[in-house]
Write a structure and sequence with these properties.
Helix content: 40-55%
Largest sheet: 7 strands, parallel
Strand content: 5-15%
Shape: globular
Order of helices and strands: HHEHEHHEHEHEHEHHEHHEHEEEHH
Number of strands: 11
Strand order of the largest sheet: 1-2-3-4-5-6-7
Number of helices: 15
CATH architecture: Alpha-Beta Barrel
CATH class: Alpha Beta
Oligomer: single chain
Radius of gyration: 22 Å
Distance between the termini: 44 Å
Structural class: alpha/beta
Length: 381
């Protein structure tokens, strides 16, 4: 909430640039060749241009999901500058840079967001929306989208937690994709990470991080936390029925699929990236670290990638055939310059907010815990 409701409006275009630059570099370093920026903070076209400038400075594959949390999507998508921006920065520019529209459906019965869906349809771009976020975007949001023909295979539902079976049926029926951000859901309270539920309805799944400010762009961590949360839920459900699970439903092979081909399918680019096949783009990640005891013995490659592999084993990364990381180091990147730009942004924000607001944001108050009285006391008071 520190960013969403309070201080996000203080970010300048150059601050957006720095955030995207660092996140893009981190993604490449972690072996993520394609990233979607669910960009809340594009208050102006200048902010949006800065976001794209950062992506063009990183030799990766990126999708800008244009969002502006400060205003309703039916407002900012209707402005001429918005469509002009899309045509100027994306239209006909190739597949290294993609575009989506990012906004939430609040559940207002008037469904004002329909106008933004119509803009997306006119432009021929996908919509990504936060769905099943506890207390914010629930079943009413899904129902309104479905009843107004505003969801389909080109819709990505981020989180997709805290929903009823009816909503999952609607998502499945329209062919929508889910993007699960397990680390975020575990900490920010959108709901229990939803892969255990999505699998029941055969809804296609991809993995995401929500934000690399709080967490990381490391898909190894995303895979590991996701399979852990899913398996923990299966055990919990079984224990509630006095049952024991010996063979788990979710396997490492499926999680690797979510991290690779699942993401490509959600973006509608599975014919070009997501797997190593003849005729596809050369987006390749090689894992190798002879100095690491984690790298041997490799008995099950899928299990190794999900359960053992780490960022420091990403030896080489190619994007569209370009070598962007080799022998564990980013290629052609001026990290000192990026570091200096980040330090300037942090100093600016700290100064503009003031010491008290900055400190309360960085170190929020910890609520007082209430201790339960233990009825089994074996010592005299």
């Amino acid at each position: 909430m520190w960013y969403y409701l309070q201080h996000g409006k203080n970010f300048r275009p150059q601050d957006i640039y720095v955030g995207n630059l660092l996140s893009g570099l981190e993604a490449i370093d972690a072996g993520v060749t394609t990233s979607v920026d669910w960009s809340h903070g594009l208050q102006t076209i200048e902010h949006a241009d800065a976001a794209v400038d950062a992506f063009e400075a990183v030799n990766g594959r990126f999708v800008l999901a244009y969002g502006n949390i400060q205003r309703g999507p039916w407002e900012w998508t209707a402005e001429p500058g918005f469509t002009d921006f899309y045509r100027r920065r994306f239209d006909g520019k190739g597949d290294r840079l993609g575009f989506q529209i990012a906004f939430d459906v609040t559940g207002d019965p008037a469904f004002p967001e329909k106008a933004a869906f119509e803009v997306a349809r006119d432009l021929g771009v996908r919509v990504t929306t936060h769905a099943g976020v506890w207390g914010a975007t629930g079943d009413d949001s899904i129902r309104l989208m479905h009843e107004n023909d505003c969801m389909g295979p080109d819709t990505i539902f981020v989180h997709a937690s805290s929903l009823s079976d009816d909503s999952y049926h609607r998502i499945a029926a329209c062919g929508g994709h889910a993007s699960v951000s397990t680390e975020s859901e575990q900490s920010a309270g959108q709901g229990y990470p939803s892969t255990w539920k999505l699998r029941q309805f055969d809804i296609p799944i991809s993995l995401s991080h929500d934000t690399t400010v709080w967490w990381s762009a490391d898909l190894f961590t995303a895979m590991r936390t996701t399979i852990g949360a899913d398996r923990a839920r299966q055990h919990l459900e079984a224990h509630a029925h006095q049952e024991t699970v010996t063979n788990l439903d979710l396997r490492c092979e499926e999680v690797v699929h979510w991290a690779t081909r699942g993401g490509a399918a959600a973006l509608g680019v599975e014919d070009r990236v997501g797997s190593l096949e003849k005729g596809k783009r050369a987006d390749v990640v090689l894992l190798k670290n002879d100095d690491s005891p984690v790298m041997f013995p490799i008995i099950n490659p899928y299990g190794h990638v999900v359960m053992q592999a780490q960022r420091n084993e990403v030896h080489t990364v190619l994007v569209d055939g370009d070598v962007v990381k080799h022998e564990g180091r980013l290629v052609g990147v001026d990290l000192a310059r990026a570091r200096a730009a980040a330090e300037e942004t942090v100093s600016y924000l700290a100064d503009s907010l003031g010491a008290e607001a900055w400190e309360s944001g960085m170190c929020p108050e910890v609520p007082e815990r209430q201790k339960r009285e233990n009825p089994y006391q074996y010592t005299k008071k």
